[in-house]
Structure formats: C-alpha cells, structure tokens
Write a structure and sequence with these properties.
- The structure is a single chain.
- By secondary structure, the chain is mostly helical.
- It is built from 1 helix and no strands.
- The chain is rod-shaped.
Length: 38
Amino acid sequence: MTSYISIVLREARAAALLVPRVWQLLSKRPCIPGVATR
C-alpha cells in the first residue's frame, strides 16, 4: 500500500510540474472554447 501511495505522490508531483506548462500553451491558443472559463 505504501508503494502505491508513493507512486501517486510521484505522479501528482509530475502533474503539478506539467500543468503550468500545458496551461501556458493553452492560454496562448484562445481558439479553444471553455479554457478561459475554467
């Protein structure tokens, strides 16, 4: 169980590092609907 938690924390940390980059890429494309509202 501890190994599963460690994997989840590792993935969450990686996601936290990837989200800002993806958000910047999406923010540069106003053609995508629903991005600005969320």
